[in-house]
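Appendix B, record 7
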Amino acid sequence: MSLIMLLCVGCQWQLKPNSDEPDNAQIVIERYDRIESLYLTTGDYSALQQMNTDYPIQTRMLIEDVLRIGKVDDAEINKRLYHFFKDSTLQQMLAEVGKLYGDMDDVNEELTEAFSRLKEELPALEIPRIYTQVGSFDQSIIVGYNTLGISLDKYLGQDYPFYQEHYSERQRQMMTREMIVPDCLAFYLLSLYPLPKHIEASQQQRDDHMGRIQWVVNKAVNRKVFTNPYVQQAEKLIHSSRHKTIQELLSI
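Structure tokens (predicted):
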């Protein structure tokens, strides 16, 4: 089952330098988007085989949960996927992704540092398998099966022409390269610390919960990405001494 979404002790987080522990290993995003784009632009059969062989979970979630064009084992699904992306808007998007994200070393580095900070406060936290993909301007981050997918089509910059026609200015401000890592952490933490399913949560409770997650994300990335009353409330809560750990804050 996949989740698609489409923070005093611990307030002075310090990244431990030069650690040789495996948990602090460099994160390198897997470029599933490149294999996907190769198939979608040229019909290269070897790329399709690699998608299905090396990335079966990612391909299933892309087809069934993100694009929603059928089941991955449908007889004609490969042709359907190929022709779906023949739309000129999506072809332009594929080209723009290739241009803007030829190199992602900066994102790899920020993810490594952010997850290292998180693991200092949440030692049991598992690092998911992180990959990039391209969708059709649907979800930004896809979480499921211990994987975390980044849809690069949602991070082409606030001035990207398609965004200007279909999204508000406030939405476009969040559709930038700088938001990739904060969004990754926010959606991953939300998958690990959801509101209890048996609770009929009010909008206020949902906003409060998301504010706590966003406060944690701000600390992990070491910058104020999310600024709203619910984040401010979370900061007051962590300083109030009623809750002393990040684990307790997220588990409320």
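Remarks on this record: Strands lie at 2-4, 129-133, 141-144, 147-151. The chain is about 50% helix and 5% strand.
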